[in-house]
Backbone:
């Protein structure tokens, strides 16, 4: 089978399209023939070594497809079932072997396999951020950075579902329109406007209850200034670079602020929690209550191009790879 292997850290050119053996499922595992694999920013961090990996490795960690074979002792799923997953290494490939406890069944009549692959990681992220990290209450105001991105468009929709007033930021007019389409009440072009001043103006000088920041280095300090007293800074990524260490005294000076740096793995620790998040997303998609925008579908062999576009701020919504 074909897979994208990484032998050394580096730019998109280290993503190597190679032949590798089809993996066999062991006890408690299933082999899935992938209909699509999701591309995520974490794949960039792993490729560059920002998140260290044991080399060589197969890139990717999200996908969906049909179960082809199961290992010993597996009774929950059978060949022919459709399943999706996030957080399982080795997803930039034609087949993956995954632990059954990380797989979520879905019904292809209601949710296309590509859609399932597209929503797992970014959708569950938007879910935990809005429902668990800072469970949004009706009427609260939120600032979502990179609102036209993969997580961003889903965050806007889920924050609206919870009754928030949503301010988004985006790099271009085209991205701003997409964010508005996803429910953002206001969108700030943070490449041209001062987002702190704009956020203060929009909230009548008060600031927002929560900032969801995936951009990191370039936006973190401004985000703290955009919060109201006792507001929450939820830093969940570093698309512009990682945030350097901060003096905790700043949180006192700026209004008794809270800061957290969450990750999906810690919000899908139990099978129950994983199913709550994933099945909620599938139900919303089936009911047409959640729009998952696939902004780009690339061939598996063109994974390097997907990474270039993602890092180059050229993309909107979700990117997927198809075998
Ligand atoms: P996006 O689709 O959001 O792509 C990144 C976007 O960030 C760009 O399109 C761009 O939007 C914005 N951006 C701002 N500055 C830069 C820069 N210097 N370089 C590149 N992009 C920049 O990606 P994802 O939805 O896949 O991921 C978003 C973030 O969320 C990532 O940082 C990722 O690591 C994080 N994440 C964290 C998770 C967690 O559990 N902690 C889980 C999933 C994702 P614009 O042009 O509008 O500024």
Residues:
């Amino acid at each position: 089978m074909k897979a994208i292997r990484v032998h050394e850290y580096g730019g998109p050119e280290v993503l190597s399209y190679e032949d590798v053996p089809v993996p066999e499922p062991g006890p408690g595992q299933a082999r899935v023939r992938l209909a699509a694999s999701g591309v995520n920013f974490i794949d960039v961090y792993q490729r560059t070594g920002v998140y260290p990996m044991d080399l060589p490795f197969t890139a990717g960690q999200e996908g969906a497809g049909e179960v082809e074979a199961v290992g010993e002792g597996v009774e929950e799923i059978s060949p022919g079932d459709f399943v999706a997953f996030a957080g399982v290494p080795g997803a930039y490939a034609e087949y993956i072997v995954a632990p059954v406890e990380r797989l979520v069944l879905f019904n292809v009549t209601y949710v296309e396999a590509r859609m399932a692959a597209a929503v797992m990681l970014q959708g569950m992220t938007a879910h935990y951020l809005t429902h668990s990290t800072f469970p949004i209450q009706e009427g609260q105001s939120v600032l979502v950075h990179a609102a036209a991105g993969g997580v961003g468009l889903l965050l806007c929709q889920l924050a609206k579902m919870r009754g928030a007033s949503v301010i988004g930021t985006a790099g271009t007019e085209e991205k701003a329109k997409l964010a508005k389409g996803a429910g953002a009440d206001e969108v700030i072009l943070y490449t041209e406007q001062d987002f702190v001043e704009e956020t203060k103006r929009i909230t009548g000088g008060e600031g927002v209850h929560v900032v969801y920041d995936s951009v990191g280095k370039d936006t973190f300090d401004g985000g703290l200034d955009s919060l109201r007293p006792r507001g929450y800074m939820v830093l969940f990524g570093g698309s512009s670079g990682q945030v350097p260490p901060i003096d905790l005294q700043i949180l006192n000076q700026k209004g008794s602020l809270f800061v957290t740096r969450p990750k999906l793995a810690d919000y899908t620790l139990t099978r129950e929690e994983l199913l709550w998040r994933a099945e909620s997303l599938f139900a919303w998609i089936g009911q047409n209550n959640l729009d998952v925008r696939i902004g780009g579908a690339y061939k598996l062999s063109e994974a390097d191009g997907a990474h270039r576009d993602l890092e180059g701020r050229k993309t909107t919504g979700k990117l997927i790879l198809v075998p």
User: Anything to note?
Assistant: Residues 189 and 277 are 31 Å apart (CA to CA). The mean pLDDT is 98. The chain has two domains: 2-121+269-322, 136-261. The first strand starts at residue 2 and ends at 6.
